[in-house]
Structures are given as C-alpha cells and as structure tokens.
Amino acid sequence: AQPDLFSAVGREHTNTFYDIPRVSFSIAEQYGVGPDLPLEEYIRLGGLCQGLNLGYSLESLRANTQTWGGIFWMYNDAWGENGWTIVDYALRRKISYYNVKRSLTPRRLVLRRGGQAFGGDAGDVLLIALNDTDRPLRTRVTWGFFEYDGAARDTETVRVDVPAHSRAIVARRPAPSADALQRGTLAARAASRALEPVVWRHGRYRDAGLPPARVRIARRRVEGADLVLRVAANSFAHAVHFDLSGDWRLSDCWFDLLAGETREVRVEGGACLADTPIAVACINRDGKTFESTTGS
Questions:
Q1: Three-class SS of residue 262?
Q2: 279 Cβ neighbours under 8 A, 6+ residues apart
Q3: CA 270 to the chain's CA centroid
C-alpha cells in the first residue's frame, strides 16, 4: 500500500491536471505528433514547447513598447515534480532553460511582425534591438530572407546604434509570402559575436516546410577544464542538441542553426570528454524527432 500512498501524495503535489493535456496539445500543435508518444519523446518535445512558449513571451515583453520588460517566475522546483520551472530539483538544466537563457540575454535581436504594441505596419517584419546594459549597442547586422538549404538569400546590412537601457526598431521589411515561407524564413546575424543570430518564428514548426538537416561537430578543443564543440549544419536545423546527460552544463543547447552557420558550445568541466564520442542531432533530422550522428 505504501507505493499507492506515495502516488497519491505525488498527484496532489503535481499539476498533472494542468500539465499533461496542455503539454500534449502544444506538442501536437508545434510538431504534429499524436498523444501516444514514448516517454522520452514526450519529455523532449514537451520541454521544447515549454521553452518556445516561455522564450517567445519573454522576448515579446522586452520588445513591447507598452511594457518595461518581463519578470520570470520561477527558475527551480522546490520539490521533486515535473513543474513549470526550467531547473529541476537536482539543479539540472531542463530543455526549456536554454531558450529562456537566450531570450533574457541583456543584448538581444528580436524579429516580430509589425503592428500593435511592437510598432510598424502589420504587413512588415521588424528587426528590434534590445539593450539592457549601461553601454550603447553599436554593430552591423545582416538580415533578410534565408532559404533553408542555403541556396539563396535576399539580405541587407544595417547599422545598429541603440543607447544604453533602451530598445529600438533598427530595420523593417515586408513579410515574405506564404510560398516563400515554405522555402525559408527571415533571420538576422550580427557582425559582433556579442549578439546571437535570430530566426523569425512565423508559425508552427510542423507547417514550416523544414527539409531534413544534418548537423555535425566540425571541431572540438579543450580550454582549461572545459570542452568546446563547434557545430555546423548543411541545412536549417531546429533544436540542435547533444547526447549528454542533464548533469553537464552547456553554454547553449536546443538552438536553431542556419545552413552553413557554425556555433561553439562550451561544456563546463568537459575536458575529460575530449576523446569520448559525442552525438549531435536536430529535430528535423530525416523527418524524425531524433536521430544522432557521431561527431568527430
């Protein structure tokens, strides 16, 4: 009877009535996957949906001219349950942690459809620069339409000059047609590494027309106690991640990569993994939610 007692107590201290239907709904909406998922896939896609929802909301609050920013509640679980947080009871970073981390970066580029609280016209897409530091943000950004396979692009380079503790629309352009958005999307890359590349999330990933992508570890090196992995993709890759346990702390994970783009990920204390095979994958790998490829 004791396990039944624990189960009953667990149900009363976990928002299963709230979490399970809504998480399943989010997974179906974003990825078109039904409710009968293996537990591992439910956790993976559910964590991604949590990160997408939290990250998009936080960025919108920061870019919205009618708000003063966003307050995040809360970071870690106070007890062992599946909760709404981004750090678990054992202080391991959940899948959603990384999207929130990127969204709260003090200096951040944001892409949003114009109109209403973001300013601009409803038919435009706005490039908004956020600067929550005490120094001006000055750089150049190349932005525009990138085809998923990298075959073509329509971009321009704009100058960004945003005062300290402020935000500004630094560029705008008409939204691509529905047909074009089946071949690619809008994205922005800054000349400075202080600003991460951003991609316009214009709809559900299941409807985005993403082709299969292959990601690989192009290079690895040891820096002190850390391992640094350089990742590359041959096509737009959604939610790039590694087959490392949640006990490892990474500088970034579950991020999107444009075709031909590279990104470096630092594994804290990971020098001991220098000769260990590490697999990297993305969600749109050959139409499957996960299929790993061993990095070099």
A1: strand
A2: 242, 243, 292, 293, 294, 295
A3: 22
- Taking residue 247's Cβ as centre, other Cβ atoms within 10 Å add up to 9
Size of the chain, expressed as the number of residues it contains:
296
- Inter-residue contact 41 to 87 (CB < 8 Å): no
pLDDT in tens, 47-102: 999 999 999 999 999 999 888 888 777 788 776 555 678 998 888 999 999 999 99
Tell me the pLDDT tens digit for each residue of 130-169: 999 999 999 999 999 999 999 999 999 999 999 999 999 9
- DSSP labels, 172-201: EEEPPPTTGGGTEEEEEEESSTTS--EE--
Contact of 231 with 216, CB cutoff 8 Å = yes
Residues 160-180 as b or e (16 or more Cβ within 10 Å = b): bebeeeebbbbbbbebbeeee
The reported pTM is 0.88
The amino acid present at 261, given as its one-letter code, is E
> Residue 14 corresponds to which amino acid?
T
Place of tokens 């490039």: 127
Q: Minimal CA–CA distance to 188: which of 250, 109, 265, 248? A: 109
Query: CA 119 to CA 36: how far, in whole Å?
Result: 42
Q: Give the DSSP H/E element, type plus range, for residue 5.
A: helix 2-12
